Amino acid sequence: MDPGTPLRSGQDDGEGGATRTETDHQALDTASLSTPTKEHVAASGRPLVSIRGVSKQFANGTLAVRDVNLDLGAGEFVSLLGPSGCGKSTLLRMIAGLGAPSSGAIDWPTTGQDAGGAPERDLGFVFQDPTLMPWATALANVMMPLTLKGIRKSEADARAAQMLALVGLKGFEGAYPRELSGGMKMRVSIARGLVLKPKILLMDEPFAALDEITRHRLNDDLLELWWKEKFTAVFVTHSVFESVYLSKRIVVMAARPGRVMADLDVDAPYPRDELFRTSPEYANLCRVVSGKLKEAIGS
Ligand SMILES: Nc1ncnc2c1ncn2[C@@H]1O[C@H](COP(=O)(O)OP(=O)(O)O)[C@@H](O)[C@H]1O
Ligand SMILES: [Mg+2]
Asked: Which of 75, 163, 199, 217 could disulfide-pair with 40, CB 3.0 to 4.6 Å?
């Protein structure tokens, strides 16, 4: 790794990821600590999600995830980066409680337990496909989680409309999914994921099917939303460029079996914009992360 590169890994830095343990990290040669941003420092010092020794073997014998150890801190923007089949979706789904680990544990140290003794997972989930109800308007789609929680219609209506405005869809409340572009449908899906104001938003390659210009715009708007709303973002992607642009931290994974190969901090300040995207700094970061990914795939 080049000296002076702004990419670092290893030590606690107070930037929301302060709870990570040293063993979770692959030490890089050049560690340069950055100043934590006030808005995104973990309040409690405890991780929101603690993943300990998690493996997942499916009934057909596939070891989709092997011995993953990760802490997700408040306010982080973490990407899970890796080739197809390395267990990104499996890991994300287990964080969401959609499928249990075969061994190990996923804890939520700062939340309570539900009546059945399971951790209360305070999260939203955005799938690669927008998965909207085709017969319902954009507003009704975003209202769905509120309705399921039993929130009365007038309040749900107002909150969903506010969320749609936040994702740039003011004026499209009454539109049906078939009337919306791919990018707009994904915006509705993100609004639905955030309408309950979850602590964590889990996103599984949400922009993979979009054209590049739309994808860049959604990347920018997602960052703005994250900055404003202060949730923790966990973003699955196989794109080095997308992960570097968005993330504070990149967890590099490899396949067969799916495992974590590197845990990198992207030490570039926010807000990030077109200037960042075209900067030598960004190009350098992409080169370094790309090298890490190649190493991971080759190993
Ligand atoms: N329900 C399942 N049953 C059996 N194998 C599965 C199942 N889901 C995923 N896999 C396998 O587990 C591995 C990881 O899959 P996945 O988590 O979808 O990877 P990624 O999201 O990184 O592409 C792959 O080999 C995939 O074929
Ligand atoms: Mg996947």
From this structure: 75
Global confidence as pTM = 0.86
Nearest Cα residue to atom 8 of ligand 1 = 90
Nearest alpha carbon, ligand 1 atom 18: 89
Instruction: Give the range among 24-33, 51-60, 74-83, 267-276 with minimum mean pLDDT.
Output: 24-33
> Between vectors from CA 226 to CA 139 and to CA 255, what angle results, nearest 5°?
100
| Nearest Cα residue to 81 out of 274, 280, 263, 225 | 263
The sheet with strand 259-266 has its strands ordered as 7-8, 259-266, 249-254, 77-81, 232-237, 200-204, 123-126
Instruction: Tell me how far the alpha carbon of residue 90 lies from the centroid of ligand 1, in angstroms.
Output: 6
Q: Phi and psi (nearest 5°) for 176?
A: -90, 155
Burial of 4 (0-12, 13-18, 19+ CB in 10 A): exposed
Nearest residue (by CA) to ligand 1, atom 25, is: 85
Spacing, Cα 90 to ligand 2 middle (Å):
7
- pLDDT tops 90 at residue 24: no
Q: What is the pLDDT of residues 174-200, one digit of tens each?
A: 999 999 999 999 999 999 999 999 999
Separation CA 257–CA 118 (nearest Å): 28
Ligand 1 pocket at CB < 6 A: 58, 60, 62, 64, 82, 84-90, 258
CA separation for the pair 295, 241 (Å, rounded): 17
- pLDDT, position 287: 97
221-230 confidence digits (pLDDT tens): 999 999 999 9
Atom of ligand 1 nearest to the CA of 256: 25
Edge-first strand listing for the sheet containing 63-72:
63-72, 49-57, 103-107
Pair of tokens at residue 236? 């699955």
CA of 236 to the centre of ligand 1 (A): 14
